[in-house]
């Protein structure tokens, strides 16, 4: 998996011809927005709104439902943070790739939250 420029250069991450298949898709924040995790990502130098990917609604619900705290996706990030409080951005991005693979999130290109899928 290749990530776009982690400093927010989205033009390299969104192929102009990319189109999502039909159906309901939602933008998934790779780095969770929950207050506890968002504050940690900010301290570590990771801008959470720069890294989303469109995934099917059913998949989005599957990874976030169940715990009332963002589901298994957020729990995986909390476990990582607990064991890597001083993780560098590179370590955080590497773990993001591992989670994308573990949770089988191969829906669409990584892009900023403000971008429309397929544009």
Q: How would you state the average pLDDT, rounded?
A: 82
Choose one word for the global shape: globular
Q: How many domain regions?
A: 1
Rg estimate, integer Å? 14 Å
The total count of helices amounts to 4
What is the ordering of alpha helices and beta strands?
EHEHHH
Could you describe the largest sheet, including whether it forms a barrel? 2 strands, antiparallel
Structural class: mainly alpha
* Number of E-type strands: 2
End-to-end Cα distance: 21 Å
What spatial order of strands do you see in the largest sheet? 1-2
Helix content percent band: 25-40%
The proportion of residues in beta strands is 5-15%
Give the helix/strand layout.
Layout: E1 25-29, H1 35-44, E2 52-56, H2 57-64, H3 71-83, H4 89-102
Antiparallel strand pairs: 1-2
Summarize the structure.
The chain is mainly alpha-helical and 119 residues long.
Structure characterization notes:
This protein has helices at residues 35-44, 57-64, 71-83, 89-102; strands at 25-29, 52-56. The protein has one domain (33-119). By secondary structure, the protein is mostly helical.
List keywords for this structure.
mainly alpha, 119 residues, globular, 38% helix
